[in-house]
Every structure is written in C-alpha cells, then in structure tokens.
Amino acid sequence: MSRDEKQYKKCLLLAQNACLKRETCKKDIREKLTKYVYELSIIEKVIPELEKQGFINEQRYAKAYAHDKFLIKRWGKLKIKQHLWQKQIPDNLIEQGLNHIDQQEYLKVLSHVLSRKAALLIEKDPTKRKKKMLDFGLSRGFEYELIWKEIS
To answer: How would you classify residue 74: left for phi > 0, otherwise alpha for psi between -120 and 50, otherwise beta?
Structure first.
C-alpha cells in the first residue's frame, strides 16, 4: 500500500467518524481535514466517497441546520439562510430547508423573542423602544415586515 493510499484511508476514516458525530456539509469536512494537514488532492477524493456512502448529504444538512437553529437558537430565516450560504450550500437546498419551518411556529417564536426583549428594555420613549425591538428582531434574522407587524 502506497503512502497516498494510507493517507486516503486515514483521511476517509477521520471524515466518517466526524460525520457520525453530527450532520456535516462539504465545507465543514473540507475545513476539518485541512486542519489535520491532509493534502487537498486527497480531501477532494474523500468528499465524493462520503457523499456516495451517505455520510454527507447537503439537503439533509440544510434541513437539520434550519430546524436546529430555529428551534434551539431562535434564529429567523434570514440569518439561517445567510449562515447556510456561507457554508456554500446551494440556494435550492437552502430554500428546501427553510420550507420545513412551520409558518405558525415561526410567528410564535418571533412574538416570544420580541416580548422577552420588550420585558428587558428600560427605554421609556415608545419610538426608541420600537427601534430597539426592530433592531433586535433584524439581528435575529427575522423579516422586517413581520417584526414591524408584531411591534405595531
């Protein structure tokens, strides 16, 4: 067995173990393997193999990522979309992942997030208060129109 074959097998095993621990995308695996100083040529052979074996599935990743960030971190669709885009997930897969978020639940979370923020605000001036609430909602990745409707 040549040196490259040994490196390939070690790299593949490391990547498989990483994929077993949590849902991953190509970019995450590429970064992880690069950190372990594997050659790019080996990494580029490993990634298609992981896809073929079902360890990496970007559609599944986008759905799980959107679900978890929405339910656990209480992020809005815009922030989730931005983060998935940074992970180089194709736009159509991002949209599929976001479509799994129930609209009624989405509005409930927005209302909950804004009401908790309102309870913490010290500001008395209603205009400044609305501005702070709007900024907070936008920073969480919720859509402007939905936030405005909620705080008005």
So the answer is: left
Domain residue ranges in the chain: 3-56, 59-99, 103-151
| pTM of the full structure | 0.91
Collapsed DSSP state (helix, strand, coil) of residue 134: helix
Q: How many CB atoms lie within 10 A of CB 133?
A: 21
* Residue 54, Ramachandran bin (φ over 0: left; ψ between -120 and 50: alpha; else beta): left
Tokens of 75: 């992020």
Burial bucket for residue 23 (CB in 10 Å: 0-12, 13-18, 19+)? middle
Alpha helices in the chain (DSSP H): 3-21, 26-35, 40-53, 58-71, 77-86, 91-99, 103-120, 126-139, 144-151
Quick: pLDDT tens for 37-54.
Answer: 788 899 999 999 999 999
Tokens of 40: 């790019």
CA angle 127-129-133, nearest 5°?
Answer: 120
CB contact at 8 A, 62 and 84: yes
Return d(Cα 20, Cα 83) in angstroms, integer: 22
